[in-house]
């Protein structure tokens, strides 16, 4: 349950009467949440509805169809459970690759540039949807496996039965029939074990392989592993190739079988099932039923998205092989490396990101980094902070001045939510630590727009918040902020950019030093005119001030930072947006890679 709605759960009728203002705030928060997220809710409801429809439709088809009457005599209702979950597995496997086709998303973002803001925002939830689809695949995989465990057990039990029941007779048809389409039970002898069928049949062996692949991918994608051991996540996630190959050929064996159409017309189960003991009689109108394996379906579901993803990877490989020239290398405080590069045909927008590979560090690993340069500049740049083995090795390679500069490969750029920043009248930018990088690109672009007197700039005011743990981090973009200060003063637009710097990691010595020098014209820590604040922003006060200053504006809130901060900002956006669409509206946007 979203934080914006969780508080509503605790209200009771007594609270409604005794605290009307609090009730009104809760109602407004809930209303704003629904207004801002209605399309996301509709999209998820449609996806869930399709899953329910496919499951129920497949379940009823296998539970009621005459074609599978004899199959149900052996397996019971677990046949329908296995096939219904397989249908949903195919559907979600078809969807799982689409949210990670980054070129496709960038293309859709470009074509939707004139669409409503609510529609464009759905593209920013691509990774969230990718995870939801993965969870749905895990759910139906579990149902499918459990159902087939029962199926194999019932196959084995009916093959060993000697009671002369219909199930036991059907299980021996493989020996009585001379044609290939006579058998129904894959257990060819009473001594055959479930394990033997599992590991000697195409369906069983591929089922085991894709299940192991799925378990490895899901477990290695957990938040802790992904952040602490990115290489494990990166390499293990590429097992998806094995998953899709196994899924495509999983149904080729045709273990689950149904009665052929010709046999149905000749010996319909409603007419002949009760007289199964007379099937061998020459004068009987009912003959032994004949069966056929179900045709493989999975490949039909995954073929189109698979081809699309292959084209995506071919395009990314082609672009990554284009030569990249490093024009400048800068080492900033707090182990941050700045690379300025040029590449023929490279074109970018503010807030976009690229994937970077350094073959001398790792030939296969590609890592995303936000572009910190502006589209108006004749180069593109990234700032890379040492947060893991790969980044530390990369920085170490560039610090070794005796050796030649390492070769860099670049794929991208790819679009993000920050591309829409200039579509808002008022913009709130919130960066945490190195999360300031997309906003550096935005602020640089603004500087160029003012220098070239761009009259098409829709944005009227920008509020910029930068939260850092250590003072050295502010040095990354000190020059940029100082230039913007001077530029705004020269143009008489001091109120256009309102920025606040917050230091969360400090001791008494730093605080005392800042207090003694507070009366100076510039901040003692950064050298900027804006003084550094100690602690974290009081977001309620900040949003209240912005809402009062812009009572009829559309405010875009952009964050590149941790999830805990995202929850706080999202809640404030809902709380301080007016239910009247003509008044102030806050729209929350978060960077996702």
TrEMBL record:
<dbReference type="GO" id="GO:0042743">
    <property type="term" value="P:hydrogen peroxide metabolic process"/>
</dbReference>
<keyword id="KW-0249">Electron transport</keyword>
<dbReference type="GO" id="GO:1902177">
    <property type="term" value="P:positive regulation of oxidative stress-induced intrinsic apoptotic signaling pathway"/>
</dbReference>
<dbReference type="GO" id="GO:0046872">
    <property type="term" value="F:metal ion binding"/>
</dbReference>
<feature type="transmembrane region" description="Helical">
    <location>
        <begin position="196"/>
        <end position="220"/>
    </location>
</feature>
<protein>
    <recommendedName>
        <fullName>NADPH oxidase 2</fullName>
    </recommendedName>
</protein>
<dbReference type="GO" id="GO:0045726">
    <property type="term" value="P:positive regulation of integrin biosynthetic process"/>
</dbReference>
<dbReference type="GO" id="GO:0006952">
    <property type="term" value="P:defense response"/>
</dbReference>
<feature type="transmembrane region" description="Helical">
    <location>
        <begin position="38"/>
        <end position="62"/>
    </location>
</feature>
<dbReference type="GO" id="GO:0072592">
    <property type="term" value="P:oxygen metabolic process"/>
</dbReference>
<dbReference type="GO" id="GO:0016477">
    <property type="term" value="P:cell migration"/>
</dbReference>
<feature type="transmembrane region" description="Helical">
    <location>
        <begin position="232"/>
        <end position="256"/>
    </location>
</feature>
<keyword id="KW-0479">Metal-binding</keyword>
<keyword id="KW-0812">Transmembrane</keyword>
<dbReference type="GO" id="GO:0007254">
    <property type="term" value="P:JNK cascade"/>
</dbReference>
<dbReference type="GO" id="GO:0034702">
    <property type="term" value="C:monoatomic ion channel complex"/>
</dbReference>
<keyword id="KW-0349">Heme</keyword>
<keyword id="KW-1133">Transmembrane helix</keyword>
<dbReference type="GO" id="GO:0034220">
    <property type="term" value="P:monoatomic ion transmembrane transport"/>
</dbReference>
<dbReference type="InterPro" id="IPR013130">
    <property type="entry name" value="Fe3_Rdtase_TM_dom"/>
</dbReference>
<dbReference type="GO" id="GO:0008284">
    <property type="term" value="P:positive regulation of cell population proliferation"/>
</dbReference>
<keyword id="KW-0813">Transport</keyword>
<dbReference type="InterPro" id="IPR013121">
    <property type="entry name" value="Fe_red_NAD-bd_6"/>
</dbReference>
<feature type="transmembrane region" description="Helical">
    <location>
        <begin position="132"/>
        <end position="150"/>
    </location>
</feature>
<dbReference type="GO" id="GO:0046330">
    <property type="term" value="P:positive regulation of JNK cascade"/>
</dbReference>
<dbReference type="Pfam" id="PF08030">
    <property type="entry name" value="NAD_binding_6"/>
</dbReference>
<keyword id="KW-0521">NADP</keyword>
<comment type="subunit">
    <text>Component of the phagocyte NADPH oxidase core complex/cytochrome b558 complex, composed of CYBB (heavy chain (beta)) and CYBA (light chain (alpha)). Component of the phagocyte NADPH oxidase complex composed of an obligatory core heterodimer formed by the membrane proteins CYBA and CYBB and the cytosolic regulatory subunits NCF1/p47-phox, NCF2/p67-phox, NCF4/p40-phox and the small GTPase RAC1 or RAC2. Interacts with NCF1 (phosphorylated form). Interacts with NCF2; the interaction is enhanced in the presence of GBP7. Interacts with RAC2. Interacts with RAC1.</text>
</comment>
<dbReference type="InterPro" id="IPR050369">
    <property type="entry name" value="RBOH/FRE"/>
</dbReference>
<dbReference type="GO" id="GO:0001525">
    <property type="term" value="P:angiogenesis"/>
</dbReference>
<keyword id="KW-0406">Ion transport</keyword>
<keyword id="KW-0274">FAD</keyword>
<dbReference type="InterPro" id="IPR013112">
    <property type="entry name" value="FAD-bd_8"/>
</dbReference>
<keyword id="KW-0285">Flavoprotein</keyword>
<keyword id="KW-0325">Glycoprotein</keyword>
<keyword id="KW-1003">Cell membrane</keyword>
<keyword id="KW-0560">Oxidoreductase</keyword>
<dbReference type="InterPro" id="IPR000778">
    <property type="entry name" value="Cyt_b245_heavy_chain"/>
</dbReference>
<keyword id="KW-0407">Ion channel</keyword>
<feature type="domain" description="FAD-binding FR-type">
    <location>
        <begin position="313"/>
        <end position="420"/>
    </location>
</feature>
<dbReference type="GO" id="GO:0042554">
    <property type="term" value="P:superoxide anion generation"/>
</dbReference>
<comment type="function">
    <text>Catalytic subunit of the phagocyte NADPH oxidase complex that mediates the transfer of electrons from cytosolic NADPH to O2 to produce the superoxide anion (O2(-)). In the activated complex, electrons are first transferred from NADPH to flavin adenine dinucleotide (FAD) and subsequently transferred via two heme molecules to molecular oxygen, producing superoxide through an outer-sphere reaction.</text>
</comment>
């Amino acid at each position: 349950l979203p934080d914006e709605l969780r508080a509503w759960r605790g209200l009771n009728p007594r609270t409604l009467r005794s605290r009307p203002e609090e009730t009104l705030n809760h109602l407004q928060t809930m209303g704003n949440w629904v207004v801002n997220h209605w399309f996301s809710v509709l999209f998820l409801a449609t996806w869930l509805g399709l899953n329910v429809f496919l499951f129920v439709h497949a379940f009823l088809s296998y539970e009621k169809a005459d074609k599978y009457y004899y199959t149900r005599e052996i397996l019971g209702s677990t046949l329908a459970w296995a096939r219904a979950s397989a249908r949903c597995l195919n559907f979600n496997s078809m969807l799982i690759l689409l949210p990670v086709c980054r070129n496709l998303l960038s293309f859709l973002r470009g074509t939707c540039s004139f669409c409503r803001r609510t529609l464009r925002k759905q593209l920013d939830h691509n990774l969230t949807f990718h995870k939801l689809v993965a969870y749905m695949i895990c759910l139906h995989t579990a149902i499918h496996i459990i159902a087939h465990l029962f199926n194999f057990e019932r196959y084995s039990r009916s093959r060993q039965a000697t009671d002369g029941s219909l199930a036991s007779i059907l299980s021996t048809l493989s020996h009585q029939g001379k044609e290939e389409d006579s058998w129904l039970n894959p257990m060819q002898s009473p001594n055959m074990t479930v394990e033997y069928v599992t590991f000697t049949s195409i369906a069983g062996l591929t089922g085991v392989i894709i299940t192991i692949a799925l378990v490895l991918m899901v477990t290695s994608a957990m938040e802790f592993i992904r952040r602490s051991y990115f290489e494990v996540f990166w390499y293990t996630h590429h097992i998806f190739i094995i998953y899709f190959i196994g899924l495509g050929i999983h149904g080729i064996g045709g273990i689950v079988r149904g009665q052929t159409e010709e046999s149905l017309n000749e010996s319909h189960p409603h007419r002949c099932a009760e007289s199964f003991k007379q099937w061998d009689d020459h004068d009987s109108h009912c003959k032994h039923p004949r069966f056929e394996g179900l045709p493989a379906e999975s490949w039909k579901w995954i073929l189109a998205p698979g081809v699309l993803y292959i084209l995506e990877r071919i395009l990314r490989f082609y672009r990554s092989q284009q030569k990249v020239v490093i024009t400048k290398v800068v080492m900033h405080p707090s182990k941050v490396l700045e690379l300025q590069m040029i590449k023929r045909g490279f074109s970018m927008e503010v807030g976009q990101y690229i994937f970077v590979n350094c073959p001398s560090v790792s030939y296969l690993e590609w890592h995303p980094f936000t572009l910190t340069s502006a589209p108006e500049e004749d180069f593109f740049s990234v700032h890379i902070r040492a947060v893991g083995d790969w980044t530390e090795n990369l920085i170490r390679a560039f610090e070794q001045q005796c050796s030649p500069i390492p070769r860099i490969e670049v794929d991208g750029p790819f679009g993000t939510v920050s591309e829409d920043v200039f579509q808002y009248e008022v913009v709130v930018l919130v960066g945490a630590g190195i999360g300031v990088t997309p906003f550096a690109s935005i602020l640089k672009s603004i500087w160029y727009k003012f220098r070239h007197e761009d009259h098409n700039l829709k944005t009227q005011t920008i509020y910029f918040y930068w939260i850092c743990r250590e003072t050295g981090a502010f040095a990354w973009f000190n020059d940029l902020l100082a230039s913007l200060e001077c530029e705004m003063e020269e143009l008489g637009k001091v109120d256009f950019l309102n920025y606040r710097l917050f230091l969360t990691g400090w001791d008494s010595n730093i605080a005392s030093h800042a207090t003694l020098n507070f009366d100076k014209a510039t901040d003692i820590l950064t050298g900027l005119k804006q003084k550094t604040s100690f602690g974290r922003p009081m977001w309620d006060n900040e949003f209240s001030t912005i809402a009062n200053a812009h009572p009829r504006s559309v405010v875009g809130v952009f964050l590149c930072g941790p999830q805990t901060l995202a929850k706080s900002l999202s809640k404030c956006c809902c709380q301080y947006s007016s239910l009247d669409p003509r008044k102030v509206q806050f729209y929350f946007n978060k960077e996702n890679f």
